[in-house]
Design a protein that fits this description.
By secondary structure, this protein is mostly helical. It has one domain. The protein is 69% helix and 1% strand. It contains 17 helices and two strands. Helix 6 runs antiparallel to helix 7, helix 6 runs parallel beside helix 16 and helix 14 packs parallel to helix 16. The radius of gyration is 22 Å and the shape is globular. One of its GO terms (molecular function) is lipid-linked peptidoglycan transporter activity.
Length: 402
């Protein structure tokens, strides 16, 4: 009992406070986006469901914190295998909004790609920790071929649904974790690759816009990209592209954010939000509701909360002596950071719209519960860092005696 009490001294209450504030933001934004909107796509009893998800989310958060995260190290293959099996199973269920992304039973639905993201984090953390803990760590690239199927299999299945946004999150998770794991040469190659992608994106939207538009058209004609995926890229490259049709969602989202100016139009007073002019505003474009009704100040506070959350999770990664726990925390941070940047960036033409929801803010059951549980796992790492430190010291002293 005494050891449990000592461990809970390491519980990061700041994370819980930040998540509670994000929950308030979520409920206010979803209510604002749905109260005056009579779209048939809005789930029935949307607010009561969201509040229920928030309550269940906090239960999942504390369940994850109470659980000893180290048992995931033994279950990494099971978790990855089950998530891939579920990603295959989705194709046996009817498509929802054109995508086979959910397993549905009556009123219950589950999105396997959310679980797959956490499974990738756990599997990569296990492998990377094993390498670091070896007597002679081997970081050679030829020993890392196993990364390809582990990441690309769920990526391909998710892309096939099609759910491009979720698939890209999996790549972002791998790049984040590998940037910490890689040494010297591989790290330099990775950084050059990332910088190259960023440079291509800048050039594609500034200097070579016509060539980019033509290239995307070729990808669409050869069925490499779905029509709606290509149009999302086209609206990112050229903000004036088809504003009355394919670029309508992004154009209205940006207009809503701009109309909020500094302090916003006031809660419930946003013309575009209350009038339901921004499609799917309660999910993919939820940030536009916050921007219109709470303005730059309210939006900046939301971004600050995300920064504090990521900072606290990174702090846990820095202070634990267990490589497995450290890599889990790094992967979870990478997952959240990419989703936040991509979702908010898409609303302001900073990145192409890929259908990624805003963590802890957008309406949804599976994503919310998995996100809360993922944070709980990182809190579990923080709670047990003292035990991990003592164990590491014991093994070091035992090695010296030997």
């Amino acid at each position: 009992m005494e050891s449990v009490r000592r461990e809970w001294k390491y519980f990061d209450i700041t994370v819980v406070v930040v998540l509670a504030l994000l929950a308030v933001y979520a409920c206010l934004a979803i209510h604002a986006a749905t109260a005056g909107n009579h779209s048939a796509n809005i789930p029935s009893h949307v607010m009561s469901k969201q509040i229920a998800y928030e309550v269940l989310g906090f239960i999942a958060l504390f369940a994850g914190a109470l659980m000893d995260y180290r048992w995931l190290r033994k279950a990494h293959w099971w978790l990855w295998g089950i998530s891939c099996a579920l990603l295959v199973a989705v194709f046996g269920f009817p498509a929802t909004m054109g995508a086979h992304s959910w397993i549905s039973f009556h009123s219950f639905s589950f999105q396997p790609s959310e679980l797959a993201k956490v499974a990738i984090v756990v599997w990569l953390a296990k492998y990377m920790a094993d390498v670091e803990e070896a007597e002679v760590p081997d970081y050679r690239l030829r020993k890392q071929w196993i990364f390809l199927p582990i990441v690309l299999v769920p990526f391909a299945l998710t892309f096939k649904e099609p759910a491009l946004g979720q698939a890209l999150v999996m790549i972002a998770i791998f790049l984040t974790m590998y940037s910490v794991f890689a040494r010297r040469g591989p790290y330099a190659v990775l950084m050059l690759f990332v910088l190259g992608v960023i440079a291509l994106g800048v050039l594609a939207t500034t200097v070579f816009t016509k060539q980019t538009l033509a290239f995307v058209d070729v990808l669409m004609k050869h069925h490499i990209l779905k029509g709606y995926q290509a149009y999302r890229i086209l609206t990112w490259v050229d903000p004036n592209f088809s504003q009355d049709k394919y670029g309508y969602n992004i154009h209205m989202a940006q207009t809503a954010i701009g109309s909020g100016e500094l302090f916003g139009e006031g809660y419930g007073k946003g013309v575009l939000t209350s009038g339901g002019w921004v499609p799917n505003q309660w999910t993919d474009y939820i940030f536009s509701a916050i921007g219109e009704e709470f303005g730059f100040v309210g939006s900046a506070i939301l971004v600050l909360l995300f920064l504090i959350l990521c900072h606290r999770l990174i702090r846990i990664a820095q202070t634990t002596t267990d490589p497995f726990g450290m890599y889990i925390a790094v992967g979870i941070v990478g997952m959240f950071a990419f989703q936040v940047f991509e979702n908010i960036g898409a609303d302001m033409y900073m990145s192409p719209s890929t259908g990624i929801t805003l963590p802890f803010i957008s309406y949804g059951g599976t994503s919310l519960l998995v996100n809360y549980f993922a944070v709980g796992i990182v809190l579990s790492v923080g709670l047990r860092r003292r035990r991990a430190r003592l164990q590491a010291q014991f093994e070091t002293s035992k090695g010296r005696l030997a």
